[in-house]
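Lab manual, section 2.4: Encoding a predicted structure.

Procedure: take the sequence of the chain (433 residues), apply the prediction step described in section 2.3, and record the output as structure tokens. A sample record is shown.
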Amino acid sequence: MPSNARPEVEAGLAAAERRGLRLALLGRSVALGAALAWLLPLSQYPEGLPGIGIVTGLLLLGLLHLWLLRIGRERPWHRYLLAAIDFAVLGWLAATQPLLAGQPVPQILLFRTYGVVYLFVFVALAALSLSPRYVLWVTLLAIATLWAVFLVTVAQIETPLTWSDMPPERTAAQYMALVLHPDFIGRGNRIEESLALALCGGLLAVAVRRARQLVRQRAVAEEQRRRALEVFGNYVPPAIARRLMEAPEALAPHNRMASILILDIAGFTALAERRPPETLLPLLNAFFERCGQAVGAAGGVMLSYVGDGFLAAFNVAEDTPGHASAAMAAGLALCAGAAEPVEGERLRIRVGIASGPVAAGSVGGSQRRSYTVYGDTVNLAQRLEALCKETGATLLVSEASWREAGEPADWQRVGPLAARGREATVVAYRPPA
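Recorded output:
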């Protein structure tokens, strides 16, 4: 695991724990609020005041815990203490409150009328905290409460009956008489219930632990992917790097409509003659960094650098609606940016833009491959960049780009022009002066 991934992952898990605990506390508060609303109109006064006070106190404790969570002052021992208080009160109520007010109903019947199903709800709610230790703690409290209530209740019976009191050759009448007898305690049933609680809590704790491990593994994998993309993106366009890592088959050669922008620095040879060699690369890096920002802001991708120029594409590696307009906007931004000095030099640039069908994809041998574009559209963009020198323009776009961009009226028509290597003349457009 990367050295700085663990703190980020653990912080994320801690935040998830807090969110889950908040959800569990909200459920607890709603349940207690409903219980209080049910008790208020039904309780006899003043006999019912202690019960109402206990429920109110538990509700206030939960709300206090929620407030501590909200302000970031909650500590793990708070949740453990609150759970212990909840079970202590629950156990006290189960052991001391009569099942039927004013009537001598044996307290042991509590286990036959209500059972332990509600204890499983507490264990399930604990799983929302995403803390295996907390799940196990609540499970332990549930089992301890079950046995505490059971032992206190059994202590009130003078002659408790168990399964051992069943005759070996029992009849149906004897079986029913024993099971339905008010002094029958069913110790074996409590053992089964405890085992069921332990199994449920243990499985939930394992499930929560596995979930945390999966979250960690995914977070680490995502961090490694991000780092690889960051490093890889320093050598290939980030958009291409993402496609390579997510769906390598998407970079297979294919045809599509796109806009190509080619830029060259005018007079770079003379510039290289009068500057020390060690200063040229920093100058080009600073210049290309500025150009990359302009191209990226318009939705394009810098595909390749050749000497003192580069090729950028729009609607190739990533979908770029209105790619011709985007390329022209990038061209204008590049021209405006050229007015700002780079490393003390004011560079002059030439930009050619053409739109049309291109073949795009990953090409190369087994040792090294690169993503690039081919086709007459690329050749035309190169010719338009070269024609900037003859026409005195800084930016020329093809007629197809101009039409694709909605035929902006303020752009000036240039040509027809004779382009090197092309039999037919070309018509170009330049931005308004």
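Check your result against the sample. The longest helix spans residues 187-232.
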